## 1
Amino acid sequence: MASDVAKFAAPLSQGFGYGIIIGLGFAFALVMIFITWALKRYQHEVQTSEMFSTAGRSVKSGLVAAAVVSSWTWAATLLQSSAVAYKYGISGPFFYASGACVQIILFATLAIELKRRAPNAHTFLEAIRARYGTAVHVVFIVFCLMTNILVTAMLLTGGSAVMTSLTGVHTAAACFLLPIGVVLYTLFGGIKATFITDYMHTVVIIVVIFIFAFSAYATNDTLGSPGRVYDALVAASKLHPVEGNAQGSYLTMRSKEGGIFWVINLVGNFGTVFLDNGYYNKAIAAHPVHAFPGYVIGGLCWFAIPWLCASTMGISALALEGSQRMSSEDVTAGLVLPFAAVNLLGYSGAVCTTLMIFMAVTSAFSSQLIAVSSILTYDIYQAYINPSAKGKRLVWISHMSCILFAIVMAGFATGLYYAGIGMGYLYLLMGVIISSAVFPGAMTLVWKGQNWIAASSSPVLGLAMSLIAWLVTAKKESGVLTVDSTGANYPMLAGNVTALLSPVIFSPILTYVFGPQNYDYESMRAIRKVDDTDVAAAAHIDIELIPGEATMTNAEKEEEEQRKLNRAALYSRTLTIGMVICFLLLWPIPMYGTSYVFSRKFFTGWVIVGIIWLFVTTFGVVVFPLYEGRKSIIRTTRSMVLDAMGRKSRALDGQKGYDESPSGVATPTEKEEVVDLVDLVNLGHLGDPWELVGNTHSKLEPEEAAPVQAVPLVEDEYRVLYQ
C-alpha cells in the first residue's frame, strides 16, 4: 500500500545542488591550477606526457594508499553498501567490504610484478602488447574500456540519483555537470592532480562518516547509543523479518541472500580492479619500493569505510523507518544513505551526504579519466596511429581523450537513467561483462607459459558463457527477460561466477593444446619512456630536472630497486594470501555457519571495532601521507614565502635556479650538509654560489664559476656541473 512506503522529499534547494556541483568543481580546478604552477616553479614538475600519466614514477606509499582508498570509494561504495545493510542487516556491510577489499590486497602482487616486468610501461596494456602482439592487445583494450565505461556509468548514475533526491537537481543535468570540474583539474594536473585531490576527497569522506557514526551511536535523540540501535533492530526483525536470515534477524551473519550478494560482489570486483587501468596507473606512478605497501595499506584502510558507513547508515535507516518501508526502487537507486542522513541530522545530514557523494563521484571519476586517456594515448594513438609521436602531441591527445570520454559518458549515463537502469543493476552486472578477462590478464604477468591463443580466446569464450548463464537463468527463474528479472540475485550469481571461473579452465587447456609460450619477459622490459624533450624545451626547462624524465641511468640503483622488488614480490604473495584467508574464511565463515545472532554486547563491540578501524584508516591515509611528504611540503612552502618576500631568485621555474656571480678562484670548502633533490636545484635564494656533489652541497668562497646545469645521479641526488 502507498501508506506503507516511506516518502523521500528533497530537503535542499536546487540552487544548493547546482552550487555544489559547479562551484566545488571549479574550486578544485582552481586549486589544482595553483598546485600545478607551484610544483612547476618550485619542484620542476612540468606536465610532460610522462608526468601527466605516471607522475614521474615517484609517488610514495602513503599517497598511493590515499589514492587507492579514494579511487575505490565510489558512490556505490557508500550507497550500495548501505542498501545491502538495509536489505540483509548487519551481514550486508561486512559482505560488501570483505568482498571488495581482497581484490585491492591481491592486486598488490600484480602491482609489484608490473614494476618488475615492465618498469617503463605507461599502461598494463602496453605489457600485453609487448608479450602477445596486436590480436591480444585489441581484445584487452575492449575489455579494459568496457570496465571504465561500466564504472563511470555507475558513478554518474548513482551520484546523479543522490543529487536529485537531496536537492531536486534534474538527473540528466547532474550527469552532464558532475564531470566538468573533474575534467578541468585533471587536464591541468594529470595523474598528480588525481593523487592530490583524491587525498582531499578522502579526508572529507572520512570526516563525514565519523559525523554519521557518532550521531547514530552517541548523540542522536532517537538512537544515540549502540544499545538503542540494537533494540530498534530487534523490533524491526519482528516487524518485517528477513527471509533467509537466521531467525529472520537483522543481527546475524547467517543470511542466504546476503551470501549470494557476497559471491556476486567478490567476483564482480575482481574485474573492476584487475581490468581497470586506473589501478595500474597508480602502481606505475608509485616509486618502485612504495607500490606494494601502498596497495596493502590502501586495501586495509578502505575496508573500514563501507563497513562502518553501511553499519551506521543502512542500520540507522532500518532503526528509524518504523512501519513505512523504503520502496525497492529507492533502495536500488541508492537512496538508503540519504534517507538515514536526513532522519539522523536533518538539513545538516543532507548537506553532509551531498558533499560526501560529490567527493566520491569526482575522485573516482578523475581516476577513470586518466585510465581511459592513457589507453587512448599510448595503446591506440601511439601504438597504431603515430608511433613516433613526441611528448607535446601525446599530452594533447591525453587532454582530448579526457574531454571526449567525459562527454560520451555523460550522454550514456543519461540514457541509462531514461531506460530505468540504476546504479544497483550496473553494480551486479559488471562482473558478467568483464570478469572473464581477469585470469588471462593476471597470468600475463605471473605465468610465463600462457600463449597468445589462450590469452585472446579465453576472455571472449568466458564472456559468451557468462551471458548465456546469466540470461538462461533469468529466463528459467522468471519466465521473461526484463530489467527486474535479469537483475535478480540468482541470474547475476550464475553470470558472475561463470565469467570469472570459465577462463581458469579455458586458458590452461588452450595453452597446452597449442603449446606453452615459455616467455622471458624481455620484450616487456624493452618498453621505453616517451621523448618529452619538446615539452621541456617549450617550458625552458632542462629535461634532466623534471622528475621521472632523467635519461642518465645508474646501474647500481636499478639493481638495488630490482632486489627490493624481488623481496616485495615474495612478501606480497605470502601476506596477501594470509589476509585474504582472514577476510574470506576465518572471520565470516564461522559466524555464518553457526547462525549466531548478535547479543547486545557483541553488537556494541562490533560497532566499536568499526569506529577504531576508521581511526586507523585516518592515520593511514590522512596523517601518514603528510608525514611522508613533510620535507617537500615544508620546502615548497618556505620557497613560496621567500619568493613572496623577494629573497629568492626570480629564475626558479627551470631556466636557471641559481644566482650568477663573476668567475674567480675557488677556495677550500667551508662546510658540508645533507640536502635533498629540490634544495639542490633551488639554491638561488641562499645568495651564494654552491658546489653540489653527491648528496651534499659545499659553500664556496668567495667568487666561483656559476653552475650551468644540475644532473641527476641517483634518487634525491644531483651534481651541479661548472664551466
## 2
Amino acid sequence: ARYGIPVGQVLLTHADLRQRERHLNARNTLSYLLEAGAIPIINENDTVAVKEIKVGDN
C-alpha cells in the first residue's frame, strides 16, 4: 500500500455474477474488504473466462 490505503483484487467471471451461490460469495468478499477499510479492485478473470461469455473487454 504505497499510500497507506489497503486494496484487494477480486477477479470475477460471468458465472460469478450469474450463479447465486457464487454471487453471494463474491458479495460477501466485497463487503468484508469494505468493512476492513480496503478498496476492492474488481476485474474480469481473463485466464478462465471463455470468449463467448466474457463480460467486457479488458
## 3
Amino acid sequence: MKRILIWGLLLFSTPALAQQKEYPSFTRFIDSVFRAVNVKVVDININKGKGKRDTLFAAGGYWARRSLGVVKYYTWIDKRLPKYVDYPDFLGIYNKRFEDTIRGYYHYRYTPHGEIRYGGTGFIAMEAEPTINCNGSSCTYYRYPVIAITNQDTVLQVFEHNFSITGLHYADINHDGHLDFIDIHCGLSDDDINKVIAKDNGVKRELLESSNEIVYKITLYTFRKHKWEQLKDRNGNIYCVIIALAEPLQADGPFKILLANWPG
C-alpha cells in the first residue's frame, strides 16, 4: 500500500487556512472549512410512488418520466431488455429537462438535506453512486447534481467526485453572499505537480504522478449572476487546496496540505 510521510500540517500562502489548527483527520478539516452558516436546509418529501410515466419518443424503446417530488427522473426503457431493467439517464425540473446529465447506471436520490436556500437562491441537491454493474474507471465516480433555482431560470451543475472522500459540502467561503460548493478530484495535472514541487516541501514527483488515491485537489464552484462558475481570486487564479492523505482513500486519517490558494 502506498504511504506518505506526514511531517505535520504545512500551510502555505493563505491567511484563512493558516488560522486552522492541526486537525486529526482530513474529514474534520473539511467539516471545519465548510461551515454552512446562515444556510437554510429542508428535507424534501420524496414522492415514492412510480408517478406518471410519459412516453417521450420511441426508437427501439422509449423515454419514461417519473416524479421524484420536485425533480423529474427520465429513464430510457429498451424494449429488447427485460422489463425490470431501467437505465436512469437524465433529470428535469418543472418544464425543463437537463439532457446534459445523461449518464447510464446512476440512480439519483436527494441528499439528506435536499433543498438548500441561501442569499435569495434555492438549490436542489441530489447524489448517486455507481451501481454494482458498472465497469472500469466509471465505478470510482460519484455524482452530485445541484440545481440552482432563481426567479429567472433553473441551472444545473453536476459535480463528479472520483472516490468521493468528502461527499457534497458547501458554504459561503469568501463571504460574498453566494454559496460555494466543493469540487474534489484525485490526481494532479502536470502544471499542479510543478507548482507543488516548486514549494520544495519534500514531496517527490514520483509520488505526485502515481498516487491517484492519495493526492487530491479541492476547488470551488459558485452560482452568481445566473450561472455556475469556478471561484477565482482577483488575479484570475482559481482557489484551490492540494492535499495528501497518509493512506489511500483514508479521509478519516491524517493528511498534509501541499499547496493552497484560498479565500482569506
## 4
Amino acid sequence: MSIDFHCEYCGRHIKAPDDAGGKRGICPNCKNSVYVPVPREQVEEIPLAPVDDEEERRRQELDRQARAVQEALLHERDAPPEGPRSGAPASGPPPGARAPQPSVHRDPRQLVLDCIRALAQSKLDRVETLISEMRRSGAAARHVVEELSLDDIPPPELSNVPAELYQGFLRTIRHRLA
C-alpha cells in the first residue's frame, strides 16, 4: 500500500511508500522538499491525563477571584472621586488619591534609563511622564541620549534589554525630545 498526497508547491499527485510517512521527500515534478504525511491507519492516539476535578474547581475559583479583583479595580478607577459631603471645604485630597508630586529635578541619565525600562515593559503612561520630565531638563537629557547612543550595548542597568531594542528605544526618545 502507498501514501497518496499532493505536492504543496506544484500540486502534483504523488505516491510514496508506507515507510516514507512522517518524513520529507522530493517532489518528482518540481524537485522541492515536501512532507510525506503519515497514513491515518498509523496515527496513534495520544492518551490524555484524566481530568482532576479538585484542580479544575481550584482553577475556576482562582478565575472567579481574579475577575472579582479586576472588576473592583475597574470600578474603583471609573468611580468619580468622592468630595466632602458637607458644605465645608476639603482639608486634603480625597482618600486613596495621590497627592501631586512636587517637581523634583532628577538625574537626566536616570530619567533616560527609566524611560527605556518603561518602553521595554510597554508602560506607555510612564513613558509619557518621563518624556515630559526629560523635556523640562532641557539639553541635558538630549546629551545623555546621544552619549548612550554611541555604545551599541546597553549599560549594565539595562542588561535585560536586547541591544537592538535598546538602540530603537534611544531613537524613539531622541525623536520625542526633538
